[in-house]
Design goal:
Blueprint (H helix, E strand, L loop, with lengths): L8 H7 L8 H4 L31 H13 L5 H12 L17 H4 L2
């Protein structure tokens, strides 16, 4: 997904989100400038800082910035809080990952 879609000078000055050219740095295709892989929203409340450069420290600010540079909307505080509440509801326990145990070899039992 292209990010930002609608660059905003004030947001750019504060967060420098357009400095990194995204996928273009690998492909050198102009159509890949500012293209990013979109992450899952699962546990997004636990993954600060936000955006590809880690410049946005809170989820509330990330929502505000996204509304401006993707939709050209200035959200009211209660709208931001409602969106953050929804995103918080996507928080759950991380899946348990256990590594397999290899069987002991006969010669290891001697040591």
């Amino acid at each position: 997904m292209k990010f930002p879609t609608l660059p905003d000078p004030a947001i750019e000055k504060e967060y420098k989100i357009s400095q990194d050219l995204g996928r273009y740095q690998v492909t050198k295709n102009d159509s890949d400038k500012h293209m990013w892989r979109v992450q899952s929203w699962r546990n997004v409340a636990l993954t600060a800082p936000y955006f590809h450069n880690g410049a946005v420290k809170t989820l509330q600010e990330a929502v505000r910035v996204m509304a401006k540079v993707q939709l050209n909307r200035d959200l009211k505080s209660h709208e931001i809080n409602d969106i953050v509440a929804f995103l918080d509801s996507l928080t759950s326990d991380f899946p348990k990952v256990s590594l397999p145990e290899l069987p002991m070899l006969k010669h290891e039992a001697l040591f």
